[in-house]
Design a protein that fits this description.
Elements: H1 2-21, H2 33-51, H3 86-95, H4 110-123
Length: about 130
Amino acid sequence: MRMILWLMIAGSFLFFILGTALAKDPGAPKKTPELLTQGKKTFEQACSPCHGSKGDGKGPAGAVLNPPPTNFTKPLKEWPSAKGDLNKVFEVITKGIPNSSMIAWPQYSEQERWALAYTAAEFAAPTPKKGK
């Protein structure tokens, strides 16, 4: 009986530890005006040479890149590496895109990379409604 009690306690402890370790990342911070301001500043410095200050993919360096930079003014679901998922935008900023000119930006903090993801998404046109 005592052994069963100890096994139950140990099992509960392991369940708690594993559950905590495997818990999902809380994800993106809340989008705030301050975060967007930070993102716009960083975007102008780091992203606009390729993506353009309007996010249209027509920055001065973007003209010579193949494949061309993503045009953020299209609906988010049409972005090739994001497919409508802001988490994927963050991942692209974090890891870059292999076999392309999109480099990783690990020198920026996680918050700065989320700020960039939100800023890029701000350029996006609304997704057209079906049937229109």
